[in-house]
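A favour, since you know our structure tokens better than I do. Go ahead and set the record down below.
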Amino acid sequence: MINVEHFRKLWVLTSSSNQHEADQALRKATMILAADGKTLDDVPGLLAGFAYSAAMESLMDTMWGPGSAHAAERAAKRQAVIDRYGSKEAALAPTEWERLLDGAVEPFKLNVQYRFSNGTYPTESLGGWMGTLSDDEPPSDVREAVERAYPLPRTIDEAKVEKDRWALRCQDLHDLLGIEAGDMPLSLAAYLRSEIVTHLFETELRAKDVYDVISRVIAFRQQGMDPTDVQMAAIQADLEGLL
């Protein structure tokens, strides 16, 4: 039987601002539910009547329950993903790119003990690197394995295609799984690869023509934020290189 008070404390962490802490908390919660023959759909009922405090309702009950305003929208998005892939199973299956990355990092997969705010739990890593949970950069051999899993983009156009592909895959998994996906549904290898190609697109590759520069500027504007100094320096270098 599930200890509801313990589960509630764990569930609070699924809304952590730290994406990997939230992801790990959600995975642990899913395992606890499965051991009791339950799924994430059972969480609203499980937590019903056990508010975080007398003055605040469960965020899960309010925002994610079956009767919430978001339920129909989430169901439509989930169905759209299923329709595009053909089935839920096909959507959850690793893509060609994910299989290549998974094979490339297999020697580096390692569970490590990480101390979260509510305890220490086994946490996935690549050679000890846990994504945003780690302060350091990934080990050089891990990064090299991810870069060599298949050819890196050589042009800004190619980098944009792969960057957008990872963004779509991430969104698909969010739409398909909802809160079960966590803040970062991509594997560590896929997340690292997406970061690498994003940097290639934004700053590291040089523009071959003015259309590459425009592509970068449009992407920066779509982020809804002013370009960083590094991004502005890349645009300046592009324009100077085209003179």
